[in-house]
Specification:
Order of helices and strands: HEEEEEEHEEHHH
Number of helices: 5
Helix content: 25-40%
CATH topology of the largest domain: Jelly Rolls
Strand order of the largest sheet: 1-8-3-6
Radius of gyration: 18 Å
Largest sheet: 4 strands, antiparallel
Structural class: alpha+beta
CATH class of the largest domain: Mainly Beta
Number of strands: 8
Strand content: 15-25%
């Protein structure tokens, strides 16, 4: 017999408070540690690293802040409202995730998809530039180091962006 379907993320969040944001207002500021987890109810947000837009998201049920919560680290990007936005907010995202194992599984799948995409992209870069003598020729070494680096030892950034 199949297990009953897990409740949707929006169903699980229905008892959480709803925060509203005006156009241009940051839900999560890059570089700060808030512990908050947001689940989009309606509206459009942009995800930006510095001045570079990474993505725009308008899908109800999209989650923001999970990387910071799970890594106990500052937000790696700013999440900003593009027009009016409503989102459920958990002030203690870690406790929310621990209390809802099916949400943790959902987040693991989202993060696994992202990692799969980034890995495919990096392997493509490695293939393209493996014969290069310059900085791009180090892609394979960098990938190998990242793959085998202990969890607590990884620090994102570079000499140009120690972020």
């Amino acid at each position: 017999m199949a297990a009953p379907p897990s409740p949707s993320l929006l169903d699980v969040c229905r008892d959480l408070p709803v925060a509203t944001f005006a156009d241009g207002e940051a839900l999560l500021p890059e570089g700060e540690t808030t512990g908050r987890l947001y689940v989009l109810v309606e509206g459009v947000v942009e995800v930006a690293k510095g001045e570079h837009r990474i993505d725009t998201v308008a899908e109800p049920g999209a989650v923001f802040g999970e990387m910071s919560v799970l890594l106990e680290a500052p937000h790696m990007a700013t999440v900003r409202a593009l027009g009016p936005v409503r989102a459920h907010v958990s002030e203690d995202g870690a406790s929310f995730i621990r209390a809802h194992p099916h949400i943790a599984f959902h987040l693991a799948r989202v993060i696994a998809r992202r990692l799969n995409g980034v890995t495919a992209y990096l392997v493509d870069l490695k293939t393209q530039f493996e014969a290069e003598a310059g900085h791009l020729g180090f892609v394979d070494e960098i990938l190998e180091c990242l793959l085998h680096q202990p969890l607590d030892a990884f620090t994102p950034g570079s000499d140009r962006d120690p972020g």
